[in-house]
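Annotators were shown the component list below and the corresponding predicted structure, then asked to write short factual statements about the assembly.
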Amino acid sequence: MAILKVARLGHPVLRQNALPVPADEIRSPETQRLIDDMVETMREYNGAGLAAPQVHVLKQICVIEVNKNPRYPEAPGIPLTVLINPVLSPLSEEMEDGWEGCLSVPDMRGMVPRYTATRLDAYDREGRRIEGEAKEFFARVIQHETDHLHGMVYLDRMRDLSTLTHLAEWNKHWLGVQEQDD
Ligand code: NI
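Structure shown to annotators:
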């Protein structure tokens, strides 16, 4: 396994559309190695998730895991989840504001509105279909990661930039400030 280089805001790869992974390539050694490397990279940098375009690969793959993450001490846990070709369909118009950060936008936080519940269709790393509903924090994380597969970052989803905060200032002034219901 290897720790991959993470593209930062400004690298054009973050603004491109990733391509779906063909079903017969999901179990290929190349895809499996990429997934393993993405998991290792996410863990190395304490990401809550990582999408393939962030490691310069334009494929619709993302990995998610939250387990006592020092970058997100208040976040609920999410077991390791690999999503391939994810498609989200919000279950209602209801949105909620919450803090987000991104390994491609280092040392920043911003308040981002996201749908509170969404349908999720995807494949796992074995090529099995995932069909389900995601709520609250997990719904937020998959919206963030799926955006990366379509050339978007969380800054594009912010209603305004007044909450965009350097992490050191966030820890001083915003830690524990409640999320606002929309
Ligand atoms: Ni991100």
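Statements collected:
1. The chain has a mean pLDDT of 94.
2. The pocket of nickel (II) ion is lined by residues 102-104, 144, 148 (CB under 6 Å).
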